[in-house]
């Protein structure tokens, strides 16, 4: 059986780390199995869905390297959902209910007071045609509930192992609202059947829903897919993911300078037994993915790990990959420059400041004029890859300075910064003329 999965985001907002992790695990599982990844836009809520957010979803997935094999809009499939609803109504599995939200809330409170589970009591099943007509005359419109069989529904979960849900302990789920809007469940099941989805992969907060959905699959006569319910994301301390991080959109992360491979490596490997290192590519992440590597504990989302992976990705980036981006920033100073500065990058944009070390302007920090004068006097005529070692040895012999007292003043004079690229590698790029100017205390 060829694997086929789907990611079904709603175009009512931007993609954030939580739903991108769901998309990524689906994508990795499918690609690792040589299968297909379906992008299905859940835009049944026409009032809240926008073309802008829909385009943003496509842009984010493309930027992350998660290209889809098939693409659908649920808003173009209402006829299929109507057909499915009609079949369920005809079989008695989808029934109208007229209670208001306030009435249902009062019933739940009474049930709780009596020590009963607060589930729907199926009072609507006892309504006569006259009762329904009376409600309609009042202006009430029905919402439509799916009648559960009330049984133990079991499946072998790829992420959790054997799983069971007792649908007798659940309320009959509402599939269609009073205003006629289809809620997520029915369109999702219909689409999974029509599109041949083999596996539904999502967060463990959907485990209970799966019991009801399996009953809907069965009621519609469709094949039931396999399921995987993965642990949710939590913060670095194990607490609920903060709103600041949990709602961080991929577009914002892109603007903050994070590399796509750092994001996918982070989200794809946290909570697994794989080392938290940058993958060679998102395709390589898929090839190494397995649910057997996924732990049962919540996955800890730590921005310090993401920052480390982002730096790791930049440190491994070759010049051919970096060159177009360097050119776009106006700092393409050649392959040698890139090789020298990339070990110092946390974000790609950091390269702009590092380029100033080579081409200026740098305002030298001269703390000891006599030391600077001695260094200038001993400056070699040729500044190549051997110059730094010979020059610092000569300065040490003349001034007696060594260690930090030798190297830090020279770094401050030549770069204006206390930290930065390897000096032996950067001075040939700075060049003798600029070195002379800076040793004299001149901005250059």
From TrEMBL:
<keyword id="KW-0436">Ligase</keyword>
<dbReference type="Pfam" id="PF19269">
    <property type="entry name" value="Anticodon_2"/>
</dbReference>
<protein>
    <recommendedName>
        <fullName>Glutamate--tRNA ligase</fullName>
        <ecNumber>6.1.1.17</ecNumber>
    </recommendedName>
</protein>
<keyword id="KW-0963">Cytoplasm</keyword>
<dbReference type="InterPro" id="IPR008925">
    <property type="entry name" value="aa_tRNA-synth_I_cd-bd_sf"/>
</dbReference>
<dbReference type="InterPro" id="IPR033910">
    <property type="entry name" value="GluRS_core"/>
</dbReference>
<dbReference type="GO" id="GO:0008270">
    <property type="term" value="F:zinc ion binding"/>
</dbReference>
<comment type="subunit">
    <text>Monomer.</text>
</comment>
<keyword id="KW-0547">Nucleotide-binding</keyword>
<dbReference type="InterPro" id="IPR020058">
    <property type="entry name" value="Glu/Gln-tRNA-synth_Ib_cat-dom"/>
</dbReference>
<comment type="function">
    <text>Catalyzes the attachment of glutamate to tRNA(Glu) in a two-step reaction: glutamate is first activated by ATP to form Glu-AMP and then transferred to the acceptor end of tRNA(Glu).</text>
</comment>
<dbReference type="InterPro" id="IPR001412">
    <property type="entry name" value="aa-tRNA-synth_I_CS"/>
</dbReference>
<dbReference type="GO" id="GO:0005524">
    <property type="term" value="F:ATP binding"/>
</dbReference>
<keyword id="KW-0030">Aminoacyl-tRNA synthetase</keyword>
<dbReference type="GO" id="GO:0000049">
    <property type="term" value="F:tRNA binding"/>
</dbReference>
<dbReference type="InterPro" id="IPR020751">
    <property type="entry name" value="aa-tRNA-synth_I_codon-bd_sub2"/>
</dbReference>
<feature type="binding site">
    <location>
        <position position="243"/>
    </location>
    <ligand>
        <name>ATP</name>
    </ligand>
</feature>
<feature type="short sequence motif" description="'HIGH' region">
    <location>
        <begin position="9"/>
        <end position="19"/>
    </location>
</feature>
<keyword id="KW-0648">Protein biosynthesis</keyword>
<dbReference type="GO" id="GO:0005829">
    <property type="term" value="C:cytosol"/>
</dbReference>
<dbReference type="GO" id="GO:0006424">
    <property type="term" value="P:glutamyl-tRNA aminoacylation"/>
</dbReference>
<dbReference type="InterPro" id="IPR049940">
    <property type="entry name" value="GluQ/Sye"/>
</dbReference>
<dbReference type="GO" id="GO:0004818">
    <property type="term" value="F:glutamate-tRNA ligase activity"/>
</dbReference>
<keyword id="KW-0067">ATP-binding</keyword>
<dbReference type="InterPro" id="IPR000924">
    <property type="entry name" value="Glu/Gln-tRNA-synth"/>
</dbReference>
<feature type="domain" description="Glutamyl/glutaminyl-tRNA synthetase class Ib catalytic">
    <location>
        <begin position="3"/>
        <end position="274"/>
    </location>
</feature>
<feature type="domain" description="Aminoacyl-tRNA synthetase class I anticodon-binding">
    <location>
        <begin position="371"/>
        <end position="440"/>
    </location>
</feature>
<dbReference type="InterPro" id="IPR045462">
    <property type="entry name" value="aa-tRNA-synth_I_cd-bd"/>
</dbReference>
<dbReference type="Pfam" id="PF00749">
    <property type="entry name" value="tRNA-synt_1c"/>
</dbReference>
<dbReference type="InterPro" id="IPR004527">
    <property type="entry name" value="Glu-tRNA-ligase_bac/mito"/>
</dbReference>
<comment type="similarity">
    <text>Belongs to the class-I aminoacyl-tRNA synthetase family. Glutamate--tRNA ligase type 1 subfamily.</text>
</comment>
<dbReference type="InterPro" id="IPR014729">
    <property type="entry name" value="Rossmann-like_a/b/a_fold"/>
</dbReference>
<feature type="short sequence motif" description="'KMSKS' region">
    <location>
        <begin position="240"/>
        <end position="244"/>
    </location>
</feature>
